[in-house]
Predict the 3D structure of the following.
Amino acid sequence: MALLHGNPVRLNTPAIDFSLKSVDGKTYSLKDFENRKILVIIFMCNHCPYVKAVTGRFVRFQAEYGAKGVQLIGINPNDTDAYPEDSYPNMKIFADEREINFPYLFDETQETATKYDAVCTPDIYVYDEKRLLRYRGRFDDNWQEEGKVTAKDLKKAVDSLLEGGKIDFAQVPSMGCSIKWKSN
């Protein structure tokens, strides 16, 4: 397992459209979320210990912030030939077992992850109502032990945007397993 950090922030860049199949059988694009105030895109997968450790936090975050106009979207870009645990059928199992309450999409071609310059799982992007990138960073400051979290970065970023403010704190890159790219 290679530990990587997300690439430097490219704030104010627009969200890039996609058309990806979800574990619920539907295909989603940005247009499906145009009524949401804030869009949080998380590149994630099934096998990564970093993702496994924080998935419950993502689920609770969506439950708390959904009514406030915030939408999480999970996107799995991993090579399923090399990592069969990340296959679409296994994504359905993963989502069911963890009661994922947001769309969990399969980026089978890895085109979406490439366009977003995603690096690791989880890699978190937050877009405002105009779908401009305002935050790219970690969920919080302790992926291993939730009880020892002292900085809830994603919550702080989303709260600032919901209040019409700006994100005025240092954005610490996400940390996790490398995306498993297909060899061409």
Remarks:
- The CA atoms of residues 78 and 180 lie 5 Å apart.
